[in-house]
């Protein structure tokens, strides 16, 4: 199956969509609509699709007569869910850190790896040295792996340039992905990701001289959909992140934040105070921070890939998120250092196995709540009026999607009504 070979399509507002109405029949539906039955399950269901949208869905014996003349596609009893959404990735970067991985397994410390040229410094160097076309070519390989698992929307961050020109180049590459593949891309400016070597010990100067000017230029070019940061002792303190968020507010851009991954600096609370779409990682988050997120409606993005790769031991406070009704998303965190993963299905399994999320929570985290984390209101569930971004699976029950390890049961993917 080709992840970028769409048939029977036309352009609609810049998106390729199906050109003819169709009625999908003989399927089991997991709509993932909030407040519905578990998974929003409807046995022996049907879905009417037209102009790239779902116009009706429900039990097959209740199909309205107005669809009698529509083309009918028999899905032979397969399961249909919303297409998956990867709401936290660093998928545009140069080089790789396989040698660093090997060194850590052989006992090298973080400092030893850094002295050998590893760590984020190596990725920044490789990214700065790559052309936009080289970055795009490398990113598309990773994108294709996600699409092959039923993903139709991804978030892509900058953050490996750490100078004005390369940060903008990364975002331009992210924008180009949509022109190369049938996928929606939401970009996040992550200039406050790390302090580059040339600004070592001068984090405030970096924020003033590089990060904020790059953000202003990214906004002027229409390259950023949101603004992110890394609030941690090895990156930026909350006061420095707040200055970036204040600039984002002036520009009318929503914010999100890498927070409480390695310690508790109050990042999630800061993000919530700025109405953040999401706070991500969150292993060291306390109940005060969880309450702040709940009040702000900020989504908790759970990233088990980094937890696994770094062999961390403190899990995010899943029970507190449940207690305070904080929506939980799940994402790959695809990046060359701490989570070199391009499998959202495996990530869902990790969320269940490592953090004891339920399979339903994991699937909601990769659909409905992932959409919320990106500010997308037209996708993430299968409901009338939503985009026809659907995944068709060779499984009997949606729990199988998080249950299997290293197995991809995708039959087909629909992107705005077009099958790929």
Overview of the molecule:
The protein has 420 residues and is of the alpha/beta class. The protein has 15 helices and 17 strands. It has helices at 98-105, 110-115, 120-128, 132-147, 164-180, 203-220, 238-251, 267-273, 287-296, 304-309, 318-323, 344-355, 359-365, 368-373, 400-403, and strands at 9-12, 15-18, 22-30, 41-50, 53-59, 71-82, 84-86, 151-157, 184-192, 226-231, 256-259, 278-281, 299-302, 328-330, 390-393, 410-415, 418-419. The strands form three sheets. Strands 7-8-9-10-11-12-13-14 form an eight-stranded parallel β-sheet. The longest helix has 18 residues, at 203-220. It is globular. The protein starts with 8 loop residues before the first strand and ends with a strand.
User: How many strand segments?
Assistant: 17
Largest sheet: 8 strands, parallel
Distance between the termini: 8 Å
Mean pLDDT: 94
Using only C-alpha atoms, the radius of gyration works out to 21 Å
Describe the strand arrangement of the main beta sheet, using strand numbers. Answer: 7-8-9-10-11-12-13-14
Structural class: alpha/beta
Number of helices: 15
- Specify the overall morphology: globular
